[in-house]
Amino acid sequence: MIKEKINEIDTPEARSRMLAELTSHVGEPNAIGMAALYETVFDRPWEHKINDTRALRRLITVMRAEGVPICSVSTTSGGGYFLAAAGSELLAYLRRNERRALQILMRNAKIKRISLPNYLGQIRMNTEGGNEEAA
Fold this sequence. Notes:
Elements (H helix, E strand, L loop, with lengths): L1 H8 L2 H11 L11 H9 L6 H17 L4 E6 L2 E6 L3 H26 L3 H13 L7
Antiparallel strand pairs: 1-2
């Protein structure tokens, strides 16, 4: 069922509109808000900010998983999505993601009452061994 919904969202037209719009939003100061990007990509207005824009977030996730460097920023005044203007902007975005991931992993390790290196070792062993269960 989820795959069917992604196929409805991930269309060549939606991808094309997404990339075309983001090329005019290069650099963090030029980020486009989620609602405006949704309306451009799906060619319809959003009615419910959380539920309707979920499709946009899924499409961005799929495209990022394929290596498309869609950056995002969140601020108290909103934030949005953009393409990096320079390598340093992309590196800063990736560092923020790494910090968030490490914070989650540190929290998990504390809950399991093990050190972060031990927890990372468990994750690595599970990944290399093909074990799909959580560490």
